[in-house]
Amino acid sequence: MINGFLQLLIFQAIGELMSKFLVPLIPGPVAGLVLLLIFLKWRGAVPQKIDLVGGAILQHLGLLFIPASVGVVMFLPLLQEHLMAVSMALILSVMSTIWVTAIVLKFFDANRQGDEHAS
Protein backbone atom coordinates (compact mmCIF):
# COMPACT_ATOMS: atom_id res chain seq x y z
CA MET A 1 0.00 0.00 0.00
CA ILE A 2 2.89 2.34 0.73
CA ASN A 3 4.24 1.74 -2.78
CA GLY A 4 0.93 2.82 -4.35
CA PHE A 5 0.76 5.89 -2.12
CA LEU A 6 4.33 6.76 -3.09
CA GLN A 7 3.42 6.49 -6.77
CA LEU A 8 0.52 8.92 -6.28
CA LEU A 9 2.79 11.32 -4.39
CA ILE A 10 5.36 11.17 -7.20
CA PHE A 11 2.71 12.22 -9.73
CA GLN A 12 1.66 15.07 -7.43
CA ALA A 13 5.27 16.16 -6.95
CA ILE A 14 5.89 16.17 -10.71
CA GLY A 15 2.68 18.17 -11.12
CA GLU A 16 3.87 20.67 -8.52
CA LEU A 17 7.20 21.06 -10.32
CA MET A 18 5.41 21.54 -13.64
CA SER A 19 3.16 24.14 -12.03
CA LYS A 20 6.07 26.01 -10.52
CA PHE A 21 8.38 26.04 -13.55
CA LEU A 22 6.38 25.37 -16.73
CA VAL A 23 2.68 26.18 -16.42
CA PRO A 24 2.07 28.41 -13.39
CA LEU A 25 -1.63 28.87 -14.18
CA ILE A 26 -2.43 25.19 -13.54
CA PRO A 27 -2.36 24.04 -9.89
CA GLY A 28 0.19 21.33 -9.13
CA PRO A 29 -2.30 18.70 -7.94
CA VAL A 30 -4.36 19.18 -11.11
CA ALA A 31 -1.27 18.80 -13.31
CA GLY A 32 -0.32 15.69 -11.33
CA LEU A 33 -3.78 14.20 -11.83
CA VAL A 34 -3.60 14.87 -15.56
CA LEU A 35 -0.20 13.16 -15.69
CA LEU A 36 -1.62 10.23 -13.72
CA LEU A 37 -4.55 10.02 -16.15
CA ILE A 38 -2.17 10.02 -19.13
CA PHE A 39 -0.06 7.31 -17.46
CA LEU A 40 -3.09 5.14 -16.74
CA LYS A 41 -4.42 5.62 -20.27
CA TRP A 42 -1.01 4.69 -21.71
CA ARG A 43 -0.77 1.63 -19.45
CA GLY A 44 -4.31 0.54 -20.27
CA ALA A 45 -5.22 -0.46 -16.71
CA VAL A 46 -4.93 0.77 -13.15
CA PRO A 47 -2.09 -0.95 -11.27
CA GLN A 48 -3.36 -2.91 -8.27
CA LYS A 49 -1.27 -0.91 -5.78
CA ILE A 50 -2.66 2.43 -7.01
CA ASP A 51 -6.18 0.97 -7.10
CA LEU A 52 -5.86 -0.17 -3.48
CA VAL A 53 -4.66 3.24 -2.27
CA GLY A 54 -7.22 5.10 -4.38
CA GLY A 55 -10.04 3.03 -2.90
CA ALA A 56 -8.80 3.68 0.63
CA ILE A 57 -8.57 7.42 0.00
CA LEU A 58 -12.04 7.55 -1.57
CA GLN A 59 -13.55 5.82 1.47
CA HIS A 60 -12.45 8.79 3.59
CA LEU A 61 -13.04 11.54 1.03
CA GLY A 62 -15.54 13.32 3.29
CA LEU A 63 -12.80 14.02 5.84
CA LEU A 64 -10.89 16.04 3.26
CA PHE A 65 -13.75 18.55 3.05
CA ILE A 66 -13.73 19.39 6.78
CA PRO A 67 -10.92 22.03 6.60
CA ALA A 68 -12.66 23.80 3.72
CA SER A 69 -15.95 23.80 5.62
CA VAL A 70 -14.30 25.27 8.70
CA GLY A 71 -12.74 27.98 6.54
CA VAL A 72 -16.14 28.91 5.10
CA VAL A 73 -17.65 29.19 8.58
CA MET A 74 -14.75 31.35 9.80
CA PHE A 75 -15.30 33.85 6.97
CA LEU A 76 -19.11 33.75 6.98
CA PRO A 77 -19.55 37.55 7.35
CA LEU A 78 -17.23 38.18 4.41
CA LEU A 79 -19.05 35.51 2.41
CA GLN A 80 -22.40 37.14 3.15
CA GLU A 81 -21.03 40.51 2.07
CA HIS A 82 -20.00 39.13 -1.33
CA LEU A 83 -22.81 36.59 -1.69
CA MET A 84 -23.76 37.53 -5.26
CA ALA A 85 -20.19 37.36 -6.59
CA VAL A 86 -19.49 34.07 -4.81
CA SER A 87 -22.78 32.59 -6.05
CA MET A 88 -22.04 33.55 -9.64
CA ALA A 89 -18.51 32.16 -9.39
CA LEU A 90 -19.85 28.87 -8.01
CA ILE A 91 -22.55 28.58 -10.68
CA LEU A 92 -20.13 29.36 -13.52
CA SER A 93 -17.47 27.01 -12.19
CA VAL A 94 -19.95 24.14 -11.82
CA MET A 95 -21.29 24.72 -15.33
CA SER A 96 -17.79 24.88 -16.83
CA THR A 97 -16.75 21.75 -14.91
CA ILE A 98 -19.72 19.82 -16.27
CA TRP A 99 -18.98 21.09 -19.78
CA VAL A 100 -15.27 20.14 -19.65
CA THR A 101 -16.11 16.75 -18.12
CA ALA A 102 -18.55 16.04 -20.95
CA ILE A 103 -15.92 16.94 -23.56
CA VAL A 104 -13.26 14.76 -21.92
CA LEU A 105 -15.71 11.86 -21.53
CA LYS A 106 -16.74 12.17 -25.18
CA PHE A 107 -13.07 12.20 -26.23
CA PHE A 108 -12.17 9.09 -24.22
CA ASP A 109 -15.35 7.28 -25.26
CA ALA A 110 -14.59 7.96 -28.93
CA ASN A 111 -11.05 6.63 -28.44
CA ARG A 112 -12.35 3.53 -26.64
CA GLN A 113 -14.87 2.81 -29.38
CA GLY A 114 -12.14 3.28 -31.98
CA ASP A 115 -9.95 0.78 -30.10
CA GLU A 116 -12.80 -1.76 -29.96
CA HIS A 117 -13.41 -1.52 -33.71
CA ALA A 118 -9.70 -1.86 -34.47
CA SER A 119 -9.37 -5.18 -32.62
List the keywords:
globular; single chain; mainly alpha; 6 helices; 119 residues
Summarize the model shown:
This protein is mainly alpha-helical. The protein has six helices and no strands.
Topology:
Blueprint (H helix, E strand, L loop, with lengths): L1 H20 L6 H16 L4 H12 L6 H9 L1 H6 L1 H36 L1
Q: Describe it for me?
A:
- This protein is an all-alpha fold and 119 residues long.
- The protein has two domains: 59 residues, no CATH class; 55 residues.
- 83% of the residues lie in helices and 0% in strands.
- The longest helix has 36 residues.
**Total domain count:** 2
Shape estimate: globular
Ends distance? 34 Å
- Sheet-strand content, in percent, reads under 5%
What's the helix count?
Answer: 6
Radius of gyration computed on alpha carbons: 18 Å
Question: How would you state the average pLDDT, rounded?
Answer: 88
Mind summarizing the main beta sheet?
none
